[in-house]
Amino acid sequence: MKIGIPRETAAGEKRVASTPDIVKKLVARGFTVVLERGAGEAAHFTDDDYSSAGAMLGERGDALAADIVLKVRRPTADEIAAMSNGAVVIGFIELCEDDGTLKSMFDKQIRPLALERIPRISRAQSMDALSSQSNIAGYRAVIEAANRFGRFIPLMMTSAGSAKPARVVVLGVGVAGLQAIATARRLGGDVHAYDIRPETREQILSLGAKPIDLDIGESGSGEGGYAKELSEEAKAKQQQLLADELSKAHILITTALIPCRPAPVLVTEDVVKRMREGSVIVDLAAETGGNCPLTEKDQVVNKHGVILVGHTNYPSMMPSDASAFYAKNIANLLEIAVREEEGSLVLNDFDEDEITRAALVRPEA
């Protein structure tokens, strides 16, 4: 069975779907791995690294014609056209805004396994690429904020005087938010956090941060551990109660997302106007409109003296580790998607396992 690893072509994307270490394990298991030349260069993995691991180097078409194609971002129309009928594609299929990609795949009987649909159950934790990449985003967001912030993060005492620790507020305590809290604490910040799901309070405290407690009249806990959208009345109350807390922040990391919905507005323009000159907002929801309406997607701007960072691909800023985590997630998924039978590797029935059943995108989806 042949696995193909093409080079990612999305603007600014530096990750690669598998790494030499993982390729070596796939080859040992019996897969033939075909890598498009240069596919790992942006993530600092050379063709020689892959060759030494047992991969075959080829052209783009060679990688795309494989039985299983590994991708980071959703395949383009040209990539789908080059794929074999009946192939399996594993990657982020980015289902919220379909541009015809799914129909093109279904027309060729291509079966997509969408990593964003991996269920959040104990068995699937090692395959949860959404979480592994969000972890990186939370870490990198704090580093980005520290780089943009013109003051110390920790308490700093010198013979020339002392500086108070920066007040860091994290909005949204999912995977990215928890990593942002932990990173900001390690840097010595005075960290506060808020989430609409009451069960996150204990997690905030466990990381040494201070929860922001608001009574908005309803819970934001949704299915599968994700947040759900609040009512309009609750949103308005939330904004009002949050305003005073947010305006005191020196660094504000926002991570609040609703799956396949516009990001909730949590940081109003009035709040930005009240923030201290030189404060930084890193808006991890910039891809879906931003938790602050002043955020500009993939731009860093200054509004009312506050720096707003709207990058949308933080894992790509750390492509080596991001690719390593991602590749391991896929390798773990392949453990349950493929079995050995009479000396050959064959695909399992994806409906027979709850993980592959959930990840499989079907024509009726």
Could you walk me through the main structural features you see in this protein, from its secondary elements to its overall organization?
- With 365 residues, this protein is of the alpha/beta class.
- It has 12 helices and 17 strands.
- The protein has helices spanning 20-29, 47-53, 60-64, 77-82, 101-107, 129-148, 175-186, 201-206, 232-247, 269-274, 319-337, 354-359, and strands at 2-5, 32-36, 56-58, 68-70, 88-91, 111-114, 156-158, 161-163, 167-171, 190-194, 210-211, 251-254, 280-283, 300-303, 306-309, 338-341, 344-347.
- Strands 11-10-9-12-13-15-14 form a 7-stranded mixed sheet.
- The longest helix has 20 residues, at 129-148.
Taken in chain order, the helices and strands follow as EHEHEHEHEHEHEEEHEHEHEHEEEHEEH
Mean pLDDT: 93
Strand order of the largest sheet: 11-10-9-12-13-15-14
Structural class: alpha/beta
Strand content: 15-25%
Major sheet size, sense and barrel closure: 7 strands, mixed
Estimated helix fraction = 25-40%
Distance between the termini: 28 Å
- Helix tally equals 12
What gross morphology would you assign? Answer: elongated
Total strands: the figure is 17
Low-confidence stretches: none
Q: Which properties best describe this structure?
A:
single chain; about 375 residues; alpha/beta; 7-stranded mixed sheet; 12 helices; 17 strands; about 35% helix; about 20% strand
